[in-house]
Amino acid sequence: DAKTTQPTSMDCAEGRAANLPCNHSTISGNEYVYWYRQIHSQGPQYIIHGLKNNETNEMASLIITEDRKSSTLILPHATLRDTAVYYCIVRVQTRGYQKVTFGTGTKLQVIP
Amino acid sequence: DTAVSQTPKYLVTQMGNDKSIKCEQNLGHDTMYWYKQDSKKFLKIMFSYNNKELIINETVPNRFSPKSPDKAHLNLHINSLELGDSAVYFCASSLTPSQGGYNEQFFGPGTRLTVL
Q1: Judging by DSSP bridges, how do beta strands B87-94 and B106-107 pair with one another?
Q2: B64 CB contacts (<8 Å, ≥6 apart)?
Q3: N or C: which end of chain A has fewer CB within 10 A?
């Protein structure tokens, strides 16, 4: 799986958009970008994933650059409950084999 | 209606003991996983089972033995516990691509193991 680089930590004001960047410059054509988050003392939670196109769901939006070397997770209106560590992962979606390698992630602190 | 549950939530034990952690999922998934999160918060996969068959076995000491009695359960037994085994252990489950799922993994709440 391709390696990812994320900032160690970020702050965001409550109610504002949180934009979390991720670099994956060695990503290959069949690798997807996944985002998970881990709220303190809980298990990781899936947020969103994508291959080429931008994606949006009820939790967030994922913007992937045209060359696919980087992406940004957007939480449109951050709340205090969004304070968590956010992990960007790139991996191949293969049949029956799902080894997800988590990096160090970005610790997002939402400030009142 | 918990999706992925683990027991116990906390486990404190002495070095050298043998202990088990249980995991159950009611999502109808056929793939389950065990992850270890150490004190530095690195989350590493240990094992994965698909339809009760071991498909991923990372470099884990053979003191760790997963057991999957059925698709909904994946238990982790640890023999001769060592200080370095202290960590939070997460169970997870997912569909496999052959079932048309998005491969998202659903994680349990974790079991905090402390070895004294």
Answers
A1: antiparallel
A2: B46, B47, B76, B77, B78
A3: C
What backbone torsions phi and psi does residue B36 show, to the nearest 5 degrees?
-120, 130
- Residue A90 is predicted with a pLDDT of 86
Distance CA B48, CA A8 (A): 29
Over residues B73-96, the mean pLDDT reads 94
CA atoms within 13 A on the CB side of A33: 30
Residue B52 confidence (pLDDT): 79
The pairs formed by B63-66 with CB atoms below 8 angstroms and a separation of 24 or more are: B66/B34
- Mutate: best of A98, A101, A107, partner B, most B CBs <10 A: A98
How many angstroms separate the CA atoms of A98 and A1, rounded?
11
Over residues A66-108, the pLDDT tens digits come to 999 999 999 999 999 999 999 999 876 655 566 677 888 999 9
The answer to whether the CB atoms of A95 and B92 lie below 8 A apart is no
Structure tokens at B99: 């079932």
* Contact list, B94 vs chain A (CB under 8 Å): 98
pLDDT value for B102? 55
Give CA–CA dist B47/B65, Å, rounded. Answer: 9
Question: Is the pLDDT confidence value at A54 over 60?
Answer: yes
- Taking CA atoms, what residue in A is nearest to B51? A96
Q: Which residues of B touch A35 (CB under 8 A)?
A: none
